[in-house]
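User: Here's a chain of 875 residues. Predict its fold as tokens.
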Amino acid sequence: MPKGLLLLASVGFLGASAVSLTAQEPEAGAIPVTVDDQGVMHWRASGEEVALFGVNYTAPFAYAYRALGYLGVDRKRAIDADVLHFARLGLDAYRVHVWDREVSDREGNLVENDHLDLLDYLLARLGDHGIKVILTPIAWWGTGYPERDPRTDGLSDGYRSKGDMTTRREGWPGQENYLRQFITHRNPYTGVAYAEDPNLIAVEIFNEPNHPAGPVETTRYIDTMASALRGAGFRKPIFYNISEGYTAEHGHAVCSAAIDGVSHQWYPTGLVRNGMVGGNMLPNVDRYTIPYADFAECRDKARMVYEFDAADVGGSYMYPAMARSFRAAGFQWATQFAYDPLAIAWSNTEYQTHFLNLVYTPGKAVSFMIAGAAFRQLPRGASFGSYPQSARFDPFRVSYAEDLSEMAADTVFLYSNNTGTVPPAPAALRHVAGVGSSSVVSYEGTGAYFLDRLADGVWRLEVYPDVAWVVDPFTRPSLEREAARVVWRARPMRITMPDLGTGFSVEPMDAGNGHRPAVRAGAFDAWPGVYVLARAGVTHPTWTLEMAVEGRRLGEFVAPPASEAPAVVLHTPPAELDAGRPFTVRADVVARDRVDSVALFIRRVGGFGRMLRLAMEPVGAFGYEVQVPAEVARDGLVEYAVSVYDGGEVRTFPGSEPGDPYHWDFTGRTFWQVPVVAAGAPALLFDARRDRDHVLYPHPWEYVRFRTDVVAGSEPERLALSAMVEDFTPAPHHFALRTFLPDAERTRLGEFTTGAVLRIRARVAGRPSDRVQVALVERDGTAWGRVVELTDRWQDLAIPLSELRRVPLALLPRPYPQFLPYLFEAATTDGGPDPARLDGLQFSVSADLFAGTSIEGPHGFEVERVVLETRPERP
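Assistant: Prediction complete.
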């Protein structure tokens, strides 16, 4: 990756594209938003309810600030680029916790420095695009993550903890001083103080505070800080966090303070797993509960979500479901944490558990765009039932199986992945955005694209370059690691819309773009950039890059240059192959330019036959595939490699070794290996050695004390997943581990029927005998389980699927805040488990298993392997 380089063709956004997706309300002086006695925020000018959706973004502060400096990036140009993309996605809300350590001294005096200047600049650019702002002035946190904290000498440096900050009264005057100076600071780029800026609609006092001194001191502290703001002339809503470390006592104390609203966060899939979360996470976002809903003190408090994310989830199916649940819970503001600055997003180093960027996560970005539309359009308090029925809500749809978010309305059609949906009124469409192909746009590339109608028969097309994740972006980060790679190539695109017909013209608009493709029957080669498409025979103005449309330049576009890294082959082999059946091998070859050719070399391990060479054919953006004949798949083990030929050179993967296996001097020894099993052989659902990275654990903030490990199994070379629960208090007295099945381990599940048998090799840990519930988890979140009796000796337990019954699903990693639901029962009516729908396994210990006896621990178990077989076999 050419670090620090950023192609800024031009900066801005065509506002027309977001007309139907955002709600730009007129301002009313310096107080644009009011809160009524029911806790509902309204636009003062129109009386309409507020509904704003967007992101946190930290370029002016902490690691993002330093990383941009490491790479030599102009930070203001970086902000320009990212705000452009916020607007392109139709976002209308921005929030950040200001690292007060970086903009203050120990006495709370505001320090005029580069951090504050960049915040001012960012706020001005957000205002240019009508993106509303809520700021959190006090953060306490150090500024290092993921590095060590650098030395600072600000307000929070005088406190050992957040609790110290809220309980040491002698330190409160310094915090009051800081809040007064912060809110009266005059932004040189707008000419107005924060308190008077109509784009800044509210303040949240403290990011994730802690109050160890109890409820009376909690209320006193909040009132003191709110009074400092009011005394400095701030008349807009003031929010305070209610969800951090929530208890009923804390809820009463916060709502008793003189504030206008309360703030929440939501991390339904945990944080910092150091790897991608697998399995269907939609049950984890089925609903957001409000524990203080009936508190009299809380009924006049507005609700905002200052941070949320489906952390470590790589799919593009989660965000609209979260928006749906937020609206059902009455939230009027929601901002994800945190959008990755474009200039460093290729490494996902800032917060590796979060990954959201228009260029580098196009499917997730379009999903987020759809979520914003849902948040603004769904009525506050609306309910759409429980999952999976709630996967469809008004014009929106989410699908784990398709990795898809979708909005199909009369004038707007948005989709995060390939979809077969036909919009209800294709002739009425005004805005289309997507990744992949649909009934409207067929596209081979992997980047996002946007189509916005300018006039009758005239459209603006914006196309982003291809991107490929070359490593799991959620693993440990580094600026030396390229997690995602951008490729600029012309890709086939076909547009099928009545308003354009099939003979339209394509005229480039962005600076430096000379690509003028021919159009044949609606198809042409699309190159990243901005274009005006005009139906044949339509008379329109001579469009230029500088022409203003909705107050912005027509040709404004920003995207990073292509990666210079060498070609890489991405492939995950199947867990098993069926003997005597042909099979397909597909691999992605990610390279700057299309390579000359690709070949598969494959052979049986231990056989005397020569390695077979098969030419692979290109499919899609980066893919190559070939069908391997049935005679290669014989009992035992096959191994194969993929050789890439380009410019007279050849390299063989997975080892990226020079030459190919037919060369006499090829010394490569790295091959993918796959077992070949006989027809009817058991399917391996879990093996502790193979699947130790495919386990979902309760997060360390869990309500039970537990230990997990991978330990020696029953035989040499075997391992077991071990769990020991030390304490079940407090309620709900339930502990679970879940596994998930990657696609590579699902290839043989369709061979089994409901008459199959589950065989588990397991034993008790820490006591002579114990009970454990074992469950199959289906892709819609339905869990089917049975209690088994284990001893301290290894056992092979056979459970017919017919004996499994519906059981609750543990939502792992445990959603945070902890008052959110932990156990889930899918709203399905299926008659029994279906092996073809399996998504993983669940092992649990709970109070229900010990009815009438003591649950006092410890309770533990070890699981070595689980297989699915057509009939029971003797142990």
